[in-house]
Amino acid sequence: MFAARIKAMSGFHWIALFGGILGPWVVLYLMSAAMMAPTVLPAFATYYDLGHFTEETNLSRLILGNFVVWLGF
Description:
By secondary structure, the chain is mainly alpha-helical.
């Protein structure tokens, strides 16, 4: 019964289905980013300010590393 309905689905139905799944995931990531921004942005600013005293700091690496860890979590 359900197999026949799934086989009868058109391209629009599949796009709507996956859009309905993807939409809440995007909202979840945006909410997570909004909750993390108040703590991570001052940390990035401090790291950037400390970089003026030495040439060994790389802000883009820190941001990329933080993003990778956050995305993995």
